[in-house]
């Protein structure tokens, strides 16, 4: 008893050191517990992957071949380590042949996807930027309709922003190890879903403004086309989100700090734009595409040349006859002038798959409301939206802002984010490609 009292007295006399030691012990215990749980989790995933690897292949069938494109700079170099620790072992245990490519410069993932062949699937280990490059390269091919189905894409969330992977795999309370392992196991299990793709044309040539004599002599600039699977974003919230990493020293409160200091710095300003859209159509005579006839070929045997050939038969799909349905609004453009603090165009939302959702924010917003809306965004709580529209095609033309320095002749272009990648354009045209991309996902 006397010894216990002596220990308590020592702890009381040196309370600062005791508090520091207690915090250090608590952190160490929490770290060891989390590491033990991660080891148990990976053991379970490895045992499941091993079952796939021990399956006997039919004679003449080669093992699956997966090409992995890794961004070594993702998450400041931690993304590559996480892939090698939580995803690569599962691929090897499943008996998958892995071809490993490590990007060395910006745009290399796009170039690789443009010439990709002789593989069964492609896995992207990186953030939104790497995935954006890969999808753009795949959809830019001349044979994109075939290639997008032939090469399913797996997404390993090893970047700072993982918008698509979050919508496919993320669950509340999930650790990075489980998140990456679940994404890798979706590739092993061959669980494929079809997602919509947005083709975004930046600054297309306007037929409303005829070219001058000088512009006719110059070589016309070709509009830039990129492809997205998540969202296009513009406005005050997008600008504030770019400042969040700057306040890293606030820890878990860095997002709130970014919105707080941004609200103090300047009042949220609205953007004026001309919004044109084509409403989605479920099918009519205007957009109806007749199915191709499937011709029964020969059996491949030598005696088939002596057998009578049957006439080709068209395969008729069950369902409504869209060739007889009339929709006068199909393909018609509707234009309006919108004034909003934020604009967000997204695809692949569960409630509106097959259409582009256009979320138009309020035109005016105070500093307090701006902070509250920003904090809701980072807490995954839906914010305030003035209008929520759905479209098949979208034409968005921003009003050109006046330059801050009047001596400058060129006015700055509008900044926007496409799949978390920054672009500058005064006009964008968005076209929806429904169910155009095969992506590995969890069980539905």
TrEMBL record:
Keywords on record: ATP-binding, Kinase, Lipid metabolism, Membrane, Mitochondrion, Mitochondrion inner membrane, Nucleotide-binding, Transferase
InterPro entries: AGK_C, ATP-NAD_kinase_N, Diacylglycerol_kinase_cat_dom, Lipid_Phosphate_FormReg, NAD/diacylglycerol_kinase_sf
Gene Ontology CC: mitochondrial inner membrane; mitochondrial intermembrane space
Topology relative to the membrane: Peripheral membrane protein
Cofactor(s) the record lists: Mg(2+)
EC number, UniProt record: 2.7.1.107, 2.7.1.138, 2.7.1.94
Entry's Gene Ontology molecular function annotations: acylglycerol kinase activity; ATP binding; ATP-dependent diacylglycerol kinase activity; ceramide kinase activity
Pathway annotation: Lipid metabolism; glycerolipid metabolism
DAGKc domain location: 61-204
Broad enzyme group: transferase
Signal peptide positions on this chain: none
Pfam family, one: DAGK_cat
GO biological process: ceramide biosynthetic process; glycerolipid metabolic process; sphingosine biosynthetic process
Cellular compartments annotated: Mitochondrion inner membrane; Mitochondrion intermembrane space
Chemical reaction(s) catalysed: an N-acylsphing-4-enine + ATP = an N-acylsphing-4-enine 1-phosphate + ADP + H(+); 2-(5Z,8Z,11Z,14Z-eicosatetraenoyl)-glycerol + ATP = 2-(5Z,8Z,11Z,14Z-eicosatetraenoyl)-sn-glycero-3-phosphate + ADP + H(+); 1-hexadecanoyl-sn-glycerol + ATP = 1-hexadecanoyl-sn-glycero-3-phosphate + ADP + H(+); a 1,2-diacyl-sn-glycerol + ATP = a 1,2-diacyl-sn-glycero-3-phosphate + ADP + H(+)
Coiled coil: none
Family named by the database record: Belongs to the AGK family.
Protein name: Acylglycerol kinase, mitochondrial
Originating species: Ornithodoros turicata
């Amino acid at each position: 008893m006397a010894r216990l009292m002596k220990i308590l007295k020592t702890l009381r006399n040196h309370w600062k050191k005791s508090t520091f030691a207690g915090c250090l012990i608590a952190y160490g215990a929490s770290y060891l517990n989390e590491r033990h749980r991660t080891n148990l989790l990976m053991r379970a995933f490895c045992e499941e992957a091993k079952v796939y690897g021990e399956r006997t292949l039919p004679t003449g069938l080669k093992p699956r071949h997966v090409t992995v494109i890794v961004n070594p700079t993702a998450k400041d170099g931690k993304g590559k380590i996480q892939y090698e620790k939580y995803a690569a072992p599962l691929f090897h245990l499943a008996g998958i042949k892995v071809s490993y490519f490590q990007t060395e410069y910006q745009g290399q993932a796009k170039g690789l996807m443009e010439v990709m062949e002789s593989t069964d699937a492609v896995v992207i280990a990186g953030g939104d930027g790497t995935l954006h490059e890969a999808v753009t390269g795949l959809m830019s091919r001349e044979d994109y309709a075939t290639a997008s189905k032939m090469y399913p894409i797996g997404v390993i969330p090893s970047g700072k922003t993982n918008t698509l992977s979050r919508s496919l795999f993320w669950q509340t309370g999930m650790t990075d190890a489980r998140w990456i392992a679940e994404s890798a196991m979706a590739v092993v299990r061959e669980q494929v879903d079809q997602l919509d793709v947005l083709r975004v044309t930046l600054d297309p040539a306007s037929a409303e403004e005829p070219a001058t004599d000088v512009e006719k002599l110059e070589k016309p600039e070709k509009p830039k086309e990129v492809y997205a699977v998540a969202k296009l974003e513009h406005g005050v919230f997008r600008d504030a989100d770019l400042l969040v990493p700057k306040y890293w020293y606030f820890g878990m409160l860095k997002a709130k700090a970014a919105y707080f200091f941004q609200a103090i710095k300047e009042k949220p300003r609205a953007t004026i734009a001309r919004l044109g859209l084509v409403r989605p159509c479920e099918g009519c005579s205007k957009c109806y595409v007749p199915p191709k006839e499937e011709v029964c070929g020969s059996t491949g045997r030598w005696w088939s040349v002596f057998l009578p050939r049957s006439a080709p038969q068209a395969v008729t799909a069950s369902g409504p006859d869209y060739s007889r349905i009339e929709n006068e609004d199909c393909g018609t453009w509707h234009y309006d002038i919108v004034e909003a603090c934020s604009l967000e165009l997204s695809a692949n939302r569960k409630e509106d798959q097959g259409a582009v959702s256009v979320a138009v924010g309020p035109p005016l917003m105070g500093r307090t409301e701006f902070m509250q809306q920003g904090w809701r965004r980072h807490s995954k709580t839906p914010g305030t939206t003035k209008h929520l529209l759905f479209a098949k095609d979208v034409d968005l033309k921003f009003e050109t802002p006046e330059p801050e320095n009047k001596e400058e002749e060129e006015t700055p272009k509008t900044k926007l984010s496409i799949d978390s990648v920054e672009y500058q354009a005064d006009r964008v045209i968005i076209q929806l490609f429904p169910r155009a991309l095969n992506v590995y996902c969890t069980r539905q």
